[in-house]
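hey all, quick one before standup. I had two proteins in the batch that finished overnight and I want to keep them in one place so we stop losing track of which output belongs to which input. First protein below, input sequence then structure tokens straight from the run.
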Amino acid sequence: MTLTKNKYYFEALDNFPHALSDCLDSLNYALSYDPEDADSLCLMGRVYSEILKDYETAKKYFEEAMQSHVSNINTPRYYIECLLNNEDYDEAGKLIEFALQIKGIDKAEILYCKAHLLERKEEFKAALEQLKESKRFSYCRNMFEMAEDKEKFIKDKMPRISTKRKVETE
């Protein structure tokens, strides 16, 4: 049964996001075989979050996925993105701290998410610090470049302190 469930999960993953009808068919089959499969629940959460923009429903799927397999390294990143899009910043912060403790998780991605959270809260200096950490934990060029691009973007958003010279009139 696990093999069949995995077959349908991989079909769903292969069809996401370009063939949503086929993706959902396969995903529903996978969940019918194992309604507590964390990866399938996470992918269903992504459908609701990334495609349908129904963040509340997505959160329910992500929560189920986390409860089903708390140390699943795939779920936190997408769940954090969903929480950020829904402006649930306190929840996102807690999940980020939890995710950083999961063995095997991509810390660079999670720290990047933390920087994104801080940016949304307009804590630009703290966001830049997190991006520095993200680059430190980056082990591929793509992640490193994403962090560098985000750094430049945040620096451009930071308020400029203008220094005006005092002109003395005599």
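OK second protein, same deal, sequence then tokens:
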Amino acid sequence: MVRALVSGRYDDALRAAREGDEDGFRVLYRTVQPGLLRYLRVLVGEDAEDVASETWLQVARDLGRFRGDLDGFRGWVATIGRHRALDHLRRQQRRPISADQVENLGELAAGDDTARAAETAIGTEAALALISTLPRDQAEAVVLRVVMGMDATAAARVLGKRPGAVRTAAYRGLRTLAKRLEQGGGTSPGGGVTHFETPALKEVR
């Protein structure tokens, strides 16, 4: 019942925003912006705020033509953000992810117990820096599925891939993060592992 009421609130905000209501748009912005910003930070680093601003300008311009619910809106905004980020990277002529820092770690065997350790390292600034060391396909899949909370189908639409490919990339990314955490690569400045709440690994698969 509570979930239905919350969902109804966002549906109302989305409907109002499409009709030009500023309060409705503000609700959508506050709901989607945190996850969008984390996603963009993995792609463009410190330029995420600028790219997010470009994203929301396009969202505001085209919102009247959007059709769908909040989950669809979240995916739509992420798709726009990804396009703006890639445009930005082309302008800057630099790569989004330092893939050479991680060579084939996604293919290493890791048990569920090891991979589950990665669940505590997704969602904050320190974690985003760690995610950014993954190959780009894994980094994007992990952020969209775990940080932004999209299912495989929605994330696949954003990335232009099949859901199965997104599931595989996300799982390999989590396994790689777990391996790096075991090796001391996911510790906070104070020396301890930073903890966050995330979906169970089996839910990401």
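Flagging for whoever picks this up: Confidence is low (pLDDT under 50) at residues 1-6, 96-117, 119-123, 185-202. DSSP finds ten helices and no strands in the chain.
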